[in-house]
Amino acid sequence: MTRRTITVMRGDGIGPSIVDATIQVLDRAGCDFDYEYVEAGLGALESSGSLLPDETLEAIERNRIALKGPLMTPVGRGFSSINVNLRQHFQLYANVRPVLSFKGSKARYENIDIITVRENTEGMYSGQGQVVSDDDKIAQALSVITRDGAERILKFAFELAKRERRHKVTVVHKANILKSTSGLFLKVAREVASRYPDIETVEMIVDNACMQLVMNPEQFDVIVTTNLFGDILSDLCAGLVGGLGMAPGANIGEDCAIFEAVHGSAPDIAGKNLANPTSVILAACQMLDYLGMDDKSARIREALRDVIASGDRTTRDLGGHHGTTDFTEALLERL
């Protein structure tokens, strides 16, 4: 059988250390991958003059699956977001952000199990119509929602709920004010929901959804929404389970997918062996699920759950006093 090759972008800041830890975990779990390492972010800019070199895009195109550490886009120098470019280039229309409570994680809630499905290529992140007047007094941007784009992400969310045996999908919108864009999204949501009578559908205005997530998050199962709202809500959900260090992300298209840490590159602790690699490890578990290797992902998640619950060599954000390598070693021992 041909071995699967994974494109790996180690990233900036703490990225290399947490990605390397994740590769060790995948190997110890017996995943039997080959890895093609490519550059992106500040490291790529320094070595090639580009944040996202053609060689990197070609490797992702060739292997159709990638694991990515956090990348840094320079602020205020005319560079566009690397993540947005990747999503649009490969039409990775679905951003999937699961959050799950881990006993011992010091999170505020103990029974959280929510998946946020965010449309990844349209809305306010489409990049269309961004204009600033010459006198810097007026700025504007265009939000674009298409019927095809809305139907595609909504169908993805309901199919995910069906496949994962979830019972409820909450459609988050702002159709009461944004009657054109959110209005179209909500209209299409109702059409798609009618095809899934066995799944409960709830409609919720985005500001109310934020309040409900803080007050009673256990009511949520799968959330589906547009790009900007999804960006905000998925980070809010991460806060329910201990922060972005506990939250993975997947960017999925028709025949290509990129799995990533959703937190930043944390340059202040880069090279200090302090970072928690959980986000990338859980992203790798998403990748294994995507590849049909559910047994491997289940083993890794169970080992991770045991390390965090026991407090064995956990990192500072988990209440421990250890670093990346100790935490990784505790996980490898369990595998």
TrEMBL record:
Pfam families: Iso_dh (PF00180)
ATP-binding listed as a keyword: no
Taxonomic superkingdom: Bacteria
An example Gene Ontology biological process: isocitrate metabolic process
UniProt KW keywords: Oxidoreductase
InterPro entries: IsoCit/isopropylmalate_DH_CS, IsoPropMal-DH-like_dom
Membership in a protein family: Belongs to the isocitrate and isopropylmalate dehydrogenases family.
The protein, known as: Isocitrate dehydrogenase
Provenance organism: Kineobactrum sediminis
Lineage, highest ranks first: Bacteria, Pseudomonadati, Pseudomonadota, Gammaproteobacteria, Cellvibrionales
